[in-house]
Amino acid sequence: MHILQVGSYLAPNFAGGAEISADNIRRLLEQVGHRFTSLAWGPSAAFTPDVVIDPLCDRDWVARTWRPVEPITALAGLDKARFYAMELATRADAAAIGQLIAAQAIDLVLVHSFRGLGYDLVDKLCQAGVPVIFVLHDFALVCLNKGMARKGALCRTRCLVCRHVARRNRRALAKSARLALVAPSRAMLNTVGDGLNIGPANRHHIPNPNRYTVLPRVRDHRDTLCLGYIGRLEADKGVAGLIGIADRLHGECGLRLVIAGQGRLSETVSAFAATRPWVDFRGQVPAEAVHHVYDAVDVLAIPSLWPENFPGVVVHALGSGLPCVGFDIGGIPEVIDHGETGFVVGFGDFAALADRIIALDRDRALLAALSRAALAASARYDAALLGQRWIDLIGTMA
User: Fold this and answer.
1) What domains sit in the chain, N to C, each tagged with a CATH number?
2) Most buried of 138, 197, 326, 362 (most Cβ within 10 A)?
3) Neighbouring-strand partners of residue 38
């Protein structure tokens, strides 16, 4: 099949884990003979409400839109209002999309993300007359800000704007020749599927078929416990809350802390580490070297303040034999087996998170047992097995 892969960012522009997963899916499908053409976001120099689709080369096309900031940029204030207004107002040309699909002889559209491309592009892709698969990396189909959380608080009800977004996308997806929703977590799949009234036959749970470089070992030593955090340094990742309990952890058990990543809280973390010699802030670590960070710690914290979809850092940790502690929200409890490979505590309860970490420091036999279980559990995320599920799904969409 010839597949049109759509994403705000696509390889070689890796904005985050979604783009890495998209690239891995493309590579494994290419290995079995499928061909790919890409359609990614590009900036428009002029203010315009239209999506302009241009070829870059035979395999790469660009969908240009005007936005006040790039889609990957964290939004605030006037830029946030203008960005979301353009997401709703931008119009895509059905004829241009049809010409792309005809020129490339596209058999299937695979949508990974469309932030910056506008909601109308979803509608036009579904009208194109070919099967469409949406990979759910976030809640964008039912939530304007993609996260179903604001300022560290979960959205208990859907606001009027998000209800409009869901209705709009429900109508759009109903126009597709054949539809599938794929999500790496059941929590994401069910939330979006229910919000769009998509039946179970069109829902597919496939964890991301990513490969990780790991240094597997059992955490059975009795040295000072080292807690790790690896990821974006943003408010929705719970970084501020984590460093808020760090002094207590160090005071009660002499714990060391390793933090790797970058984001808007980088300066905050750097300043915190500068006054505490037991905190090792490593900044952004290259992908080819990050396995050394996992090897350096004994417990990994996942303190996210939004419903994480499928945290790849946990899968990477499992393969390293690294127990994890996180909040009971989103897909986190799907990849942390409570009491077996780590612990989940109530959402946002940093005190309980600290209690679990301290308990692991005091019970090293339990830490070692969790570590062994983590190594065993990592087999369920074997990239080859998950990749075969993708291959099988594509076969049903022909």
Assistant:
1) 2-205 (3.40.50), 226-381 (3.40.50.2000)
2) 326
3) 5, 60
